[in-house]
Amino acid sequence: MLHIDTGNTGFMLLCTSLVMLMTPGLAFFYGGLVGRKNVLAIMIQSFVSMGWTTVIWYAYGYSLCFSGDWHGITGDLHYAFLRNITLNTASPANETIPLFVFIAYQMMFAIITPALISGAFTNRVTFKAYMMFLTAWLTFVYFPFVHMVWGGGMLQQWGVLDFAGGIVVHNIAGIAALASVLYVGKRRVMDRGPHSVPLVALGTGLLWFGWYGFNAGSEFRVDSVTTTAFLNTDVAASFAAVTWLAVAYFAERKHKPSFLGLLTGAVAGLATITPAAGYVSPSTAVVIGIISGVVCYYAVALKNKLHWDDALDVWGVHGVGGFLGIILLGVFADKRFNPAGVDGLLLGNHVFFYKQVAAVLFSSVWAFVFTLGMLRIIDCFTPVKVEANDEVVGLDDALFGEHAYEDVLEPEEEVVGTGV
Q1: Where are the alpha helices (DSSP H) in 306-349?
Q2: How many domains does the chain contain in total?
Q3: Which of 86, 341, 391, 412 is the most buried if burial means most Cβ atoms within 10 Å?
Q4: What is the DSSP letter of 95?
């Protein structure tokens, strides 16, 4: 019989709402970074995930993640269409919370994860192909890793830890973004730069605000670990933002502080602390934030040097940030700040460190290979990349017949090629 703790249940409903808000925040963040003719095309990719991912989650997604076990990789269909669940069914994460709350909370994670990938191939992917990609990627990449890490699958059984989604959200999304960029290729028409930095700032604010629910809510109750995860989230984001600002100031020729750099650094810090938020001390969160600001900045610089057209730096921020966070958790984990966790490398547990490294390498390879494979298959049914003229006109008009602004004909881009 379920005995509801109203405090924990109310807290988790609030955290679920916060994580939901992150997806519109992501839409604003990405929308501000693109040109004026492609704002709606990138924003709809986040908002449509809120609708379509919910449909998939209800139909079979939750069940594949959290019911049964097939060889440690995926679940079964016991809870498909939310069958076999009643008002008295308790959450597996906390028996004082109804399962329906847990389902809703995890659904918000499923919604935002594939939407993160869309920033990499902005301005060049057809909407039909994106919908097919969204469905396939959730089914063959996201759902298996939720099960493997959080749903009783092989990585969880092996002892791998990921507090709120270093592997499950950021690493696999960022690596999938890199695979998508390499497959789709470069844009033919390059934006001259972000069309609205204030929109990016608004999106960053909403993401940062929602991230408290993302990380603190992953404890699934209100206790001292919850408060540590909450504080660590803000500390890491802040130190990463300031670090990125400082590194960019001295590394770039203009020697001027960059608002966009500050915002990007904050998101990198948030992504990096995510897997470790409930397992490390606030002082460690400072170190993680600083490392994130430096490493993710130079990951983006490397991407630019290699001429990868990851338009909105999804790989450098989320892929590298998630990878780095899992590794640093293996180094800095401390049972004094979470008795349910383990000690890391610095406290003598080298085995746990090796497991974290192996797990994140495995997730990176899986996400890269499966993403490339599904894009090739989708291309057999419908073109993945838009026509050259659609890029010139702008995807808002070419794909949707709508415009974010009345003056979209204002010159704003440079045509860099018309070949495929």
Answers
A1: 314, 320-332
A2: 1
A3: 391
A4: T
